[in-house]
Amino acid sequence: MRNGFFSDDEVVGRFYDARLIKRLLGYVGRYAALAVLALVLVLTGMGLFLVNPWLLGRIVDLGIRGRDADMLVKLGCLYGAVELLIFVVTYAHNYLLQVIGQRVMYDLRAEFFSHLQRMPLPFFDRNPVGRLVTRVTNDIATLAELFSSGIVMVIGDLVLIIGIAATLIGLQPTLGLATLSTVPLLAVAAWFFQTRIRMAFREVRTRIARVNAALSENLSGIRVIQIFTQEARRARRFDELNASHRDAQLDSVFYHSLFTPTVTIINAVCIVVVLLLGGHMHQTGALSLGLLVSFLTYAQNFFHPIRNISEKVTIFQSAMASAERVFALLDEPEESGCREGAALGEVRGEIVFDRVSFSYTGTHEVLHEISFTVAPGQSVAIVGHTGAGKTTITALLNRMYEVTRGRILLDGRDLRDIAKFDLRRRIAVIHQDVFLFADTVLENIRLWDPAVPPERVEQIAREIGADPFIRALPHGYRTELQERGANLSTGQRQLISFARALCADPAILVLDEATSSIDSESEKIIQEAIKTLTRGRTCLIIAHRLSTIRHCDRILVLHQGHLVESGTHDELLARRSFYHKLYELQFL
Ligand SMILES: Nc1ncnc2c1ncn2[C@@H]1O[C@H](COP(=O)(O)OP(=O)(O)O)[C@@H](O)[C@H]1O
Ligand SMILES: [Mg+2]
Question: What distance lies between CA 46 and its chain's CA centroid?
């Protein structure tokens, strides 16, 4: 079976994809001046590389064999100067290319991050966190490598190869062609090894993706694994994946290790050809000793760029694959109506569900023709078995998901005509599992809004009844919470989430089983807090506790996505139907 988690990590890109390259170059566009400068430097460096073997030949012929001490010194110094220049140019273009690569990576990550923040919830249902993190880190780093050591260097290497070939033929056509005769051999070897390296590399990628997926799942579920002591079983499973990755890696290393010595051997053949033929030509006087030295040096240098290019194939390929994945995510439409849409003025808080049906998947409907009205300031409870669709109703209300059919009205206006940001500022949803950020208590309550002064936060906490326990923390409101609030109790986390909601001062409040995991000790505080919270607001309350539901103006009974009953607690009990059964099951 195809596993959604890593399926698209297994896609291996083509070596070259014009569409992707064009889009990637768009990012370099901002640094066009730097890129052009880098290219000029690379080409200059390659030009200098071409000069020195020739100079070497001149030194041998004019300086050494010609016994011209003056010339020897001059040419020797020139040779040194060229080497120094190569040093400077190489340093400069290496640095520049890294600068470009890092800037592009910075830009891509920034774009990706803000894009992710604007993605609608269904997107996160489809894309596990682990995969998104891989995109932002690995894939974008691979792209940066393409810029820092890929494209420009390949152009430079190509120019160098052509330059050397032209120089060889220009200096001595016969010997030049003989030297180049080994190139087809090299081409065949490069093709043979690179195809195998590519195949092995594809396996490596596939398998490392599996290792990553297994690792991240294991860490997320570590509690379950430890509680049910499944460590050994999980370790065995991980071991299989780990070993399979190692083997794939070793396959790729096998060909990789063989490739370099093969190039060296072919290079040696080439040099032997130059030595034998060139040596013979020198003996017959057709070639000066200096030229022979130049030829040998060129032949020696010739193979570096060829090997470089064939190795760049891997970088190109993984960059294309990464680009494909990164762009696919960047192209996913962002939350619509985030910024535009009519502004929402003062909210009274009347909610109308008008024959609302909804499906997460497009096939299976989880809500069927739900209709109800909540008057401004009313508290309405929603009860029903797990999976009845209670949470779904709340997710439709703040447009985390869009209704499939029917409509939801707020103060008589269709939600779809209200800007989402605007809407969400008026609705606070409190869930059972509270998410706390690794920051201070203060920031967790005011959510980094500098417009809310610390005194206001403390006042809110007092109203909620959270103040005493917060003061008892080591640094009070400035206490750093651990990730997800691991250093607080469930009740304390819940109180902070209440304070957070009160701080947002919403017109509409939604409590989704916010009280179900509270121990009876904190129950009293929580009940008081809820009273404070709900005062003067329209409230939708999903609760397991009778004490919470009983005081609601009305109770909606949901069963398998259908609204089966509604009324006050007493009315519904008197009817002795669905609610009555639920009541007996849950509360008695
Ligand atoms: N993100 C989702 N994607 C697909 N199906 C979902 C999603 N969330 C909930 N469901 C399904 O929708 C139905 C109602 O779920 P939910 O509203 O969470 O129920 P409740 O809150 O009443 O327990 C369930 O059958 C559940 O499997
Ligand atoms: Mg629920």
Answer: 37
Cα–Cα distance list, 208 to 241, 250, 373 (Å): 8, 13, 53
- Per-residue model confidence (pLDDT) at position 401: 92
Ligand 1 touching residue 387 (CB < 6 A)? yes
Instruction: Note the pLDDT tens digit of each residue in 467-526.
Output: 999 999 999 999 999 877 778 888 889 899 999 999 999 999 999 987 666 666 677 788
Going from the Cα of 149 to the center of ligand 1, the distance in angstroms, rounded, reads 48
Residue 13 binned pLDDT confidence (cut-offs 50, 70, 90): low
* Same domain as 445, residue 569: yes
Tell me, in angstroms, the distance from the centre of ligand 1 to residue 352's CA: 21
What pLDDT does residue 193 have?
84
Question: CATH number of the domain that 52 lies in?
Answer: 1.20.1560.10
Kind of pairing between the strands at 351-359 and 405-410: antiparallel
DSSP 263-279: HHHHHHHHHHHIIIIIH
The ligand 1 atom nearest the CA atom of 389: 17
pLDDT at 12 over 70: no
Cβ(432) – ligand 1 distance below 6 Å: no
Residues 33 and 145 both lie in one domain: yes
Taking the centre of ligand 2 as the mean of its atom positions, its distance from the CA of residue 524, in whole angstroms, is 23
User: What is 282-328 written as a DSSP string?
Assistant: HHTTSS-HHHHHHHHHHHHHHHHHHHHHHHHHHHHHHHHHHHHHHHH
Q: Is 390 in the pocket of ligand 1 (CB under 6 A)?
A: yes
* Closest ligand, as measured to the CA of 386: 1
Is the CB of 391 inside a 6 Å radius of any atom of ligand 1? Answer: yes
Please give the structure tokens belonging to residue 322: 């990464």
Ligand index nearest the alpha carbon of residue 558? 1
Q: Are residues 361 and 318 in the same domain?
A: no
340 band by pLDDT with thresholds 50, 70 and 90? low
The letter for the amino acid at 344 is L
Give the total number of structural domains in the chain: 2
**Residue 23 and residue 31: Cα distance in Å, rounded?**
14
Does the beta carbon of 388 lie inside 6 Å of ligand 1?
A: yes
Q: Does 376 lie in the same domain as 472?
A: yes
All residues with CB under 5 Å from ion ligand 2: 391
Ligand 1 within 6 A of CB of 389: yes
Domain of residue 77: give its range: 9-330
Q: What is the mean pLDDT of residues 165-190?
A: 88
Residue 338 lies in a domain: no
Return the best residue to mutate from 358, 366, 396, 398 for the ligand 1 pocket (most ligand atoms within 8 A of CB): 366
Give residue 515's Cα distance to chain centre.
Answer: 35
Instruction: Give the Cα-Cα-Cα angle 334, 337, 341 (nearest 5 degrees).
Output: 160
From the alpha carbon of 360, which atom of ligand 1 is closest? 4
Whether 180 and 259 map to the same domain: the answer is yes
CATH number for the domain harbouring residue 374: 3.40.50.300
- Ligand 1 centre to CA of 367 (Å) is 10
pLDDT at 391 over 80: yes
Domain check: are 319 and 417 in the same one? no
The domain boundary residue, chosen from 330, 362, 382: 330
Paired tokens of 249: 């890696």
Q: What is the distance in A from the centroid of ligand 1 to the CA of 423?
A: 23
Residues 477 and 577 in one domain: yes
Domain shared by 257 and 386, yes or no = no
